[in-house]
Design a protein that fits this description.
The protein has 436 residues and is of the alpha/beta class. 31% of the residues lie in helices and 25% in strands. Helix 1 runs parallel beside helix 7 (200-213), helix 1 runs parallel beside helix 10 (393-408) and helix 4 crosses helix 10. It binds flavin-adenine dinucleotide.
Length: 436
């Protein structure tokens, strides 16, 4: 079967890899000159299975209210006259109940664990060097209330089989000695030894290279303008994808099946087809610093709970990422937010890096209110979704690609995860479809 994958971030590239492995003829359409140049470019780089709590949780509404209007807030909701943003906000509030949060954590852990196993097998098979560190993730707290509130989530993770240990300040520092200078401020932490980190860009571009060598046709510098369709009801069908290619020519590309893996841009592409995705862009920031003193820099991937920042060591670079701004599709750099990241990193590790030459970046997390992605089918019989991976697209990426390839091959992976448009027991995730 000929399959066209739309988008070459971590999700589209992993999907293309597994479809090719399954024997399909695969093309990938991407507007950038290479793979992983948008949200999968410079993220926090954590494979964070055991810290999979969604942002929508019982304490979120008060925090969001408290942070309204604060330029350097970890999560900033900038109200816009935009129906999608308001609707998304209402759905987010609905996901904040304890029952919904627990349900969402279970789903996220299931797909993330499957994905970590997939990534581990894939890196051995494909032999990609991506500054991978398998030294765990250490989450440290500087606020007693936040630490106390984290204990039930840690217990839930343990109940789900994740080895997440709540620990005291001395143990935090013994796991990551680079935190010694702020020992007095740390009230506790939790450590998940099986979590990992690694450069998502290096991995994805390496995987795209290997996939191309295996026969996947990557069409870069090619912008998708719309999907063409025919029929209605159960007979609805995608007939082609209209693109503007690298030479500026308008073309229609045909295939037997189409996979939408366009991150935040999946929503506007599918809206005219009546496929109503609840994905809103959550702009996040990262800063990358050159390490100047290796012994003063952390080598365990960290999460600084108070500042909602993640820190990952990528060879001789330190990546610090976080914060979220709900403000449409703009990727502008806000200097207040950039400086806040550098200020905090310098405070933590003053002697570790060259802080005068940071490389700042922003990316748009494709956020669903629950942080559960859409992986599966639509009412168009040959249109599939792999999108909406929000804060954890790197963590869930390899497994999402493999799972969707299985679904396209007519199998459903044995996971406690609700795939879109697929009935399993009493559970199905249905998509809202508008008449077209
Ligand atoms: C600051 C920050 C920190 C993060 N940290 C982590 C982390 O530590 N761990 C983790 O697991 N996740 C993390 N994430 C989330 C993760 O980066 C995303 O979930 C993931 O990259 C999404 O991948 P994707 O392939 O769906 O989207 P993308 O990488 O955005 O890929 C979509 C692709 O579609 C292409 N495209 C879009 N529209 C068109 C069009 N019209 N025509 C052609 N091509 C098009 C884009 O160019 C892009 O390459 C972080 C995100 C941010 C912003």
């Amino acid at each position: 079967m000929k399959v066209i994958v739309l988008g070459s971030g971590i999700i589209g590239t992993a999907t293309a890899w597994f479809l090719n492995k399954a024997g399909h003829e695969v093309s990938v359409i991407e507007r950038q000159p290479g793979a992983a140049q948008e949200t999968s470019f410079a993220n926090g780089c954590q494979i964070s299975v055991s810290h999979a709590e969604p942002w929508a949780n019982p304490s979120a509404p008060m925090k969001v209210l408290k942070w309204l209007g604060k330029e350097d807030a970890p999560l900033l909701y900038r109200f816009r006259p935009e129906w999608l943003q308001w609707k998304w906000g209402m759905h987010f509030l609905r996901e904040c109940t304890p029952a919904r949060t627990a349900h969402n954590i279970r789903q996220i852990v299931a797909i993330s664990e499957y994905s970590r196993q997939t990534l581990q097998a894939l890196r051995t098979e494909a032999g990609i060097d991506y500054d991978c560190l398998t030294r765990g993730i250490l989450h440290f707290y500087t606020d007693q209330k936040e630490f106390d509130e984290s204990l039930p989530a840690a217990k839930l993770m343990r109940d789900l089989g994740c080895p997440r240990e709540s620990i005291g300040p001395d143990e935090v520092v013994s796991i990551e000695p680079a935190l010694a200078r702020i020992r007095d401020k740390i009230v506790g932490g939790d450590f998940t030894a099986t979590d990992e980190s690694g450069d998502v860009y290096k991995f994805t571009s390496g995987l795209a290279q290997k996939a191309a060598e295996a026969g996947v046709d990557f069409q870069f510098n090619t912008t998708i303008t719309r999907l063409l369709h025919e029929g209605s009801g159960n007979a609805a069908n995608i007939t082609g994808v209209e693109v503007i290619d690298a030479e500026g020519r308008h073309k229609v590309l045909r295939a037997d099946a189409f996979v939408v893996a366009l991150g935040s841009f999946s929503t506007p592409l599918l809206k005219p087809l009546g496929v109503d995705l609840m994905i809103y862009p959550g702009k996040g920031y990262s800063a990358t610093y050159q390490i100047t003193d290796s012994s003063a820099a952390p080598s365990v991937s960290l999460t600084d709970d108070g500042y909602k920042l993640v820190v990952s060591r990528l060879g001789d670079r330190l990546r610090v990422a976080g914060t979220c701004e709900l403000n449409g599709y703009t990727r502008d750099l806000n200097s207040t937010r950039c400086e806040a990241i550098t200020r905090r990193t310098r405070e933590l590790f003053p002697d570790a890096c060259d802080y005068d030459n940071p490389v700042y970046w922003t990316g748009l997390r494709p956020l669903t209110p629950s942080n559960i992605p859409y992986i599966g089918k639509t009412r168009y019989r040959n249109l599939y979704l792999n999108t909406g991976h929000g804060t954890l697209g790197w963590t869930m990426g390899a497994g999402s690609g493999r799972a969707l390839a299985e679904i396209i091959c007519g199998r459903v992976p044995e996971l406690d995860f609700t795939f879109t448009g697929i009935q399993r027991g009493n559970s199905t995730q249905t998509l809202k479809m508008q008449p077209v």
